[in-house]
Amino acid sequence: MLRSMMQMYVKGSMEAVEFYRKAFGAELLCAYPDGYGGYMHSELNAFGQILAVSEIEEEADTGSTMQFCFHFGEDGEEHVRKAHEVLKEGAFFCTPPAPCDFSPCQFCVVDKFGVSWCLFV
After folding, report:
1. How many helices (H) and strands (E) would you count in the chain?
2. 27-36, long-range: CB within 8 Å, 24+ apart, which pairs?
3. Who has the most CB within 10 Å: 64, 68, 72, 100?
4. Pairing of strands 93-94, 5-10
């Protein structure tokens, strides 16, 4: 296998790409506009992980059955807190960064694009 990607289909893909760039300090690797104000396909490098963002035409299930998890390790609390500050904006559900059974700093969010995240150290 060459690589794996975390693919997201959202309404407002161009806005979503900028939102995730800000949340994760991600680099835009490629972007293919769909001609209707969104991206047919785009890729971001977030800490070495590929986030692929594409426009969806139909209504999506908010927070459905999948969650993207980023485990940063002991020195990653700054990344968790920075991402939380961005991802909480307009979120459908969000817990604050706090200790849990498996981490001294963790939060979960279903962001304004309907994507479910769990970030922890």
Report:
1. 2, 9
2. none
3. 72
4. unpaired
The identity of residue 14, as a single letter, is M
CA nearest neighbour of 114 among 65, 52, 62: 62
- Number of residues in the chain: 121
Q: Residue type for 54, please?
A: S
- Cα(89)–Cα(102) distance, integer angstroms: 25
Percent of the chain with pLDDT over 70: 95
Could you tell me the pTM of the whole model?
Answer: 0.89
How far is the CA of 63 from the CAs of 35, 36, 58, 115, in angstroms? Answer: 27, 25, 15, 5
Mean of pLDDT values over 53-69: 81
